[in-house]
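Sequence decides. Our protein:
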Amino acid sequence: MAQQADITAMRRAVELAARGLGATSPNPVVGCVVTDASGHLVGEGFHQRAGGPHAEVHALREAGVLARGGTAYVTLEPCNHTGRTGPCAQALIEAGVSRVVYAVGDPNPQATGGADTLRAAGVEVEQGLLEDEARAGNIAWLTSVRHGRPFVRWKYAATLDGRIAAADGTSRWISSPESRADVHRLRAEADAVVVGSGTARADDPHLAVRGIEEAVQPLRVVVDTEATAVKPGARILDDAAPTLIAIAENAENAENAATGLPDVVRLPRAGRGLSVPALLDALHERGVRSVLLEGGPTLAGAFVAAGAVDQVVGYLAPVLLGAGPQALADAGITTITDALRLDVIETARIGTDIRITATPKER
């Protein structure tokens, strides 16, 4: 059984890792804590940006010679390859640490093997401490490695009777100011924010992160199948964050729409919209490992139908409308036996609203 000191150190490493959310793609978020031979914390760090030093390097630099004979607690198995930075397993060996405790094994075939390298050098290695917590914090990157596509979090705000707007189309504001601020946190943690043409027309959204210092702005993506929704002067076309417009490869207005747009990708159709797998492939190729889906019910339905929603975050406001569009449109589910069942992993009070976070059950 793990000692309380080990648990405390690893929990701190998990907290540190979270500071890198939204800034490290296509790399994982990683936190590291180093204690000296007597168990005192002497160094800590986290992976801050892709191409920069890894968490272990930051922690070892802070620890200096005090790392010798000590323990390193890392949320992900230390890497074993040379990319834009050197292998962390070797850095730990050279620093003289005698023990390494890591939470999650590295599933990346290019980087795995760090634990074996450490053991071969005589370092004591332990795996699995707070694995679930560390895995949850790194779920976007782990999903991308396993499935070759970005992790998709669908966010919506609705009344208690499931309406995202009134019958006349008005929707500002259903959710509380606190919930809207919390959405900016979700944006800051994501590599891309995705909406559809309906949202682009109705709301002229900006989609950039506001109110969070030093946030790395996500890629703003509009799924504009017919290339008619994004017009010159749209707020999403300003220079606050990068923007990508996804259109059908055979859209009649494709050439005209591409003129003056910052970045356009042409994708195959699927039903009345674009192929969701093709869109996710295009984003993955651009280094996107996490997507915040903020689109309306039609786009959300397409993602659910494609089996491409990994997490749902719903903000439920204490409001009743009785009519108006619902949060989710046609998702290809026609009978209750085919319903997408969810596991609720968290409920929280946000202002006057309730935030529910859930993940699909294994089918």
